[in-house]
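Encode chain A's predicted structure.
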Amino acid sequence: MNVRIWAVASKIVNTKIKSTIKEVCMKITNARRLSTRDAAKEICDVEGEGTAQYTAVSRWYKRFDSWDLNLEDQPRSARPSALCNADLHAALEDEPSLSNRELASSLRVSSHQTVLNRLHQMDFVYKKPRQDPYELTEAQAKHRVEVYRQLLESPLDDRCWKRIVTLDEKWVYLVNHHRQERWVTRGQNPPLVPRQKHFGKKVIICVSWNFVFGSNMYRTKETSSVTDVM
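Encoded structure for chain A:
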């Protein structure tokens, strides 16, 4: 029985039967004891370039040599790579802070890059939520407006500007709560998270400067809180 007869017959049947005929061709070449490379070349000469790969022929040869003559594909043990948009959307709604690797593991997708590419196709981005800013009371807002008005009405005298001291400060909490990044659609922002407690133990770094003295920096000790120093 010639492999070319089976190969020519495969040109007039559907894809599923073509796959079976190709496997039959491999069985024939195995019975003729052709090498895997020669078998792949003979099938490709008739069916077309790339029809039978060397690795596929080698895999089928091993099955035939172990007396496994079944032409059905064996079930694969690897995780499926198919990814459903609805499943991905449901996973994000359940826990939007999962990384693409964690999503790939929970959805049983073989590659985390597949999940990342699909998220970008769905127009999702990974953002860190902003902290909720402090809100001024009405009295504080009026006081600030009054201070700004007085400064604007002051005469433009050099002595006024030289008396101004600029101060910048940074609060550094000894215990920092991590704000996890979340997957959100492009153009949207994650929900705001509350700021840390005002009375948590922290240190403060202050930088001040004016027209004459330049800059100066001060930092409290790490072993003491700001309330203790003040």
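Residues 15-31 form the longest helix (17 residues).
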